[in-house]
């Protein structure tokens, strides 16, 4: 599995011959949107009413996963969980469990509060956990660190933190790393193999 980050919650995840794009964004946020052909787009935050065509990259025929439910796309098994305490009549937030190859990925997306117990149970022990690490308007870094210790993922991959060019205010990754008591070692991309994973939780910071 190969993982690249484009800023905010936008990742390119390549596994089992499938290219996944998470939370694509517009250039108005100050960053450069990704330009590649995706097989699957996963959205963790959508406005209501949901317009599926709005989330499709115009140059692709990518499948789109939005909201709670069980999905199977090109051999991938995806479970979507509604973040009911954070959703309202204007938008819906979701977390996801993605099973691909022999790996399990947890996507916390735009999480602002702690996870509900039933979702915690589903995500415990995932191989890689993608988390919003920049603080407000998302979950506090200290609270996030406690949640991570509860879930015990092998890898923690942060998102939604301060990077050059981003127009919205958010915290530096150093704040989250300190809360998690981890060192920062940045990588251009991450290659994940099940056999190479440690039982100890490791923070992986990717460059945009």
TrEMBL record:
Signal peptide: none annotated. InterPro entries: RibonucZ/Hydroxyglut_hydro (IPR036866). Transmembrane segments: none annotated. This is Zn-dependent hydrolase. It comes from Candidatus Harrisonbacteria bacterium RIFCSPLOWO2_01_FULL_44_18.
């Amino acid at each position: 599995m190969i993982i690249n980050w484009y800023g905010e919650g936008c990742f390119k995840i390549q596994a089992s011959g499938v290219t996944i794009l998470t939370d694509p964004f517009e250039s108005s946020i100050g960053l450069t949107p990704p330009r590649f052909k995706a097989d699957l787009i996963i959205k963790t935050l959508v406005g209501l009413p949901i317009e599926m065509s709005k989330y499709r990259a115009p140059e692709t025929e990518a499948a789109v996963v939005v909201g709670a439910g069980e999905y199977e796309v090109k051999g991938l098994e995806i479970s979507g969980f509604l973040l009911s305490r954070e959703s309202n009549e204007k938008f819906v937030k979701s977390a996801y469990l993605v099973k691909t190859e022999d790996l399990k990925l947890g996507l916390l997306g735009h999480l602002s509060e702690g996870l509900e117990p039933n979702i915690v149970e589903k995500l415990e022990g995932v191989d890689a956990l993608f988390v919003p690490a920049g603080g407000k308007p998302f979950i506090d870094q200290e609270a996030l660190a406690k949640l991570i210790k509860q879930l015990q993922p092998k890898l923690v991959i942060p998102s939604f933190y301060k990077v050059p060019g981003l127009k919205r205010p958010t915290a530096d990754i150093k704040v989250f790393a300190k809360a998690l008591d981890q060192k920062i070692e940045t990588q251009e991309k991450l290659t994940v193999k099940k056999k190479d994973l440690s039982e100890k939780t490791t923070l992986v910071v990717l460059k945009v």
